[in-house]
Amino acid sequence: MENDMKSILVADDEFSIRRNVADLLSPLGYQISVAKDGIEAIEKFRRESPQLVILDINMPHKTGMEVLVEIKKINKEVPVIMFTAFGNSERAIQAMKSGAYDYIEKPFDIDEFILIVTRALQFGSLLSELKQLRSAADSSQIRSTENDFIGKSPKMQEIFKLIGRVAPTNATVLIQGESGTGKELVADAIQRHSMLYDKPYVKINCGAISESLLESEIFGHEKGSFTGAFTQRKGLFEIADGGTVYLDEINSMPQSLQVKLLRVLQKQAFFRVGGDIPVTANVRIIASSNKDVKAEVDSGKFREDLYYRLNVVSINVPPLRERISDIYLLVEHFIAKFSPENKVIVPRETLNKLKKYNWPGNVRELENAIHSAIVTASNNVLNIENLSNDNQQEKEQVDYLNMVERGMSFKDVVNSVEKKIIFEALKKFDNNQSKAAEYLKMNRRLLYSRLKEWM
Ligand SMILES: Nc1ncnc2c1ncn2[C@@H]1O[C@H](COP(=O)(O)OP(=O)(O)OP(=O)(O)O)[C@@H](O)[C@H]1O
Ligand SMILES: [Mg+2]
Q: Does the Cβ of 359 fall within 6 Å of ligand 1?
């Protein structure tokens, strides 16, 4: 009986945490051993060979991250759970990357804590899965911090964990999510935490340029392959050789290029435009889409074989309205970004308003709202107005008939309404015309031509 008892080492500099954890876990039949700092933790780990370690990140003498790294050198297979104080993506990713099994934020929820501990212990005995974890833990380098990727909601925490697991593997990743949810930040974090972090990182927006230009951008061209191709030019895949390519808006990639991309994924080779010698490029691909790519496959717009090639790992970034618990942190983050003196006060009503709003433009819209509120504020109190589809009924009613009475023609009135709608959409999407057009469900070309008329 005694011998079967699983032992857990808990290292935390706070006495109350050590005691609470022991009080929680001892009755469940675990043998608990405690350490009050990093050095003691390593000593006890060597001496007692526990089945599970729970480590606080902030400890005197040696930080939890340092202890984690050392423990993993001694025995990789023992799962480690980290205690973190705050929704900090870098630390979370870092910890997962260095081989932590999971992390728990303090103050923690008791049921969730016990669940994670139980799972970690089960996991510890599943060697096969451990192997997978080991490969992630092997990349020893710890990257410099960049704390611009915020989120403490359970959904974002899951995403940080996934990034930590998948980053060092070089697997192709498909990131999906509504516009403005942070897909590019996910891609950047994967690249930053991958083994290719110091290799080229090239981003291509597949929706922003015409088909023929896109093809020569990506694959390059030979001299004379089309009018204007005066010299041979390397494509972005060649430039990125040995590194990472981020294919943004992959769903808008034309079918002909989808075939070419598929060949790159299968054979790591392609032809430049107008070329007949295969060029090799060994790149890790991270693709993103603000549409459901599977649905695009079902409606025949996207190649199924390419979809399966891209979707080796898929990360779905949730819309902001499904993680309102992140709003406060994000607001603080953007205030610090746009007002470095950071004297802005966020009144409760403003915060409530932000939490109630449904954020169709997601984090980007929140960022823009905070930015304009700070720029236009006359005091230090954050006051958010004019959220686009908030409180429709409270919005000022435009008197169209009065406009006609004042001498405008019917056509002019309609035109002014159209202009207002289009400019509001452009504002929402940082003047990105294709995104504004998509949001308005209008043809991109129509939007361009309307804009031209008004310029
Ligand atoms: N979790 C986050 N923490 C901090 N900033 C964020 C977060 N998510 C998004 N942002 C900010 O919001 C803006 C939009 O993010 P990003 O460009 O990554 O979105 P996206 O999903 O790629 O959008 P799109 O589909 O429109 O290209 C950026 O300025 C980004 O810095
Ligand atoms: Mg993007």
A: no
Tell me if 367 CB under 6 Å of ligand 1: yes
| Residue 253 sits in the same domain as residue 376 | no
284 neighbors 187 (Cβ within 8 angstroms): no
The number of folded domains in the chain is 4
336 shares its domain with 312: no
Predicted confidence (pLDDT) per residue in 270-280, tens digit: 888 888 888 88
Inside any domain, residue 109? yes
Of the residues 393, 413, 428, the one at which a domain ends: 393
pTM above 0.85, yes or no: no
**Residues spanned by the domain of 214:** 170-316
SS3 at position 426: helix
Residue 160 burial (C-beta neighbours within 10 Å; 0-12, 13-18, 19+): buried
Ligand 1 pocket: which of 147, 149, 185 to mutate (most atoms within 8 A of CB): 185
pLDDT averaged per 10 residues, the chain (length 455): 73 92 88 94 93 91 92 89 77 84 84 83 57 36 51 90 90 96 94 90 84 84 73 84 94 91 88 88 95 94 94 95 93 88 84 92 94 84 73 52 75 82 86 88 84 76
Task: Output the CA 383–ligand 2 centroid distance in Å.
Answer: 28
Atom of ligand 1 nearest to the CA of 186: 18
348 and 401, same structural domain? no
Same domain, yes or no, for 99 and 81? yes
What is the atom index within ligand 1 of the atom nearest the CA of 248?
27
Rg of the chain in Å (alpha carbons): 27
Write out pLDDT tens, residues 174-196: 999 999 999 999 999 999 889 99
d(CA 370, CA 187) in angstroms, rounded, equals 24
